[in-house]
Amino acid sequence: MFQGFVNGHSKSLSLGKTLIFDMTETNTDGIYSTNTGIFKAPSTGMYAFTWTICVDSFTDDDGYGEFGVELVIDGKICGKIHADTEVRTDDQCSTGFVIKCMTEGGAARLRNIYVHQGRLLSNENRARTTFTGWKLNKLILYLAKYI
């Protein structure tokens, strides 16, 4: 997801739209689609997801950059993050992490959760907006969280 693609994609992201990443570093068996933004589980098991959104402070759009994104797995919201920058030269990033059981063919995606300001930031010289998913082979899990 480099800045040329990101700029156009950021402008087109309305409420509830899926973030689409135009590049993959590793995409075993094509489980992530750069056309739809969907990660499809190739087999049943436990999957880990991490995603980072960065907002660009160098674009003044009524308050610079602000984005909120949620991870949706099989239609259910599993995590949310928010990044906001209020002044020029104050790029902001936020990262989420979720472990979730998925069945074969299950789908995971990132979705824009509100009307945003500015644009996402993703370039080699400053910061990258990313989405990663992988299957865990064996997991002994303890999860504690605040409600």
From TrEMBL:
C1q domain sequence ranges: 1-142
Recorded superkingdom: Eukaryota
One Pfam family this sequence matches: C1q
InterPro entries, sorted: C1q_dom, Tumour_necrosis_fac-like_dom
UniProt protein name: C1q domain-containing protein
Species of provenance: Mytilus galloprovincialis (Mediterranean mussel)
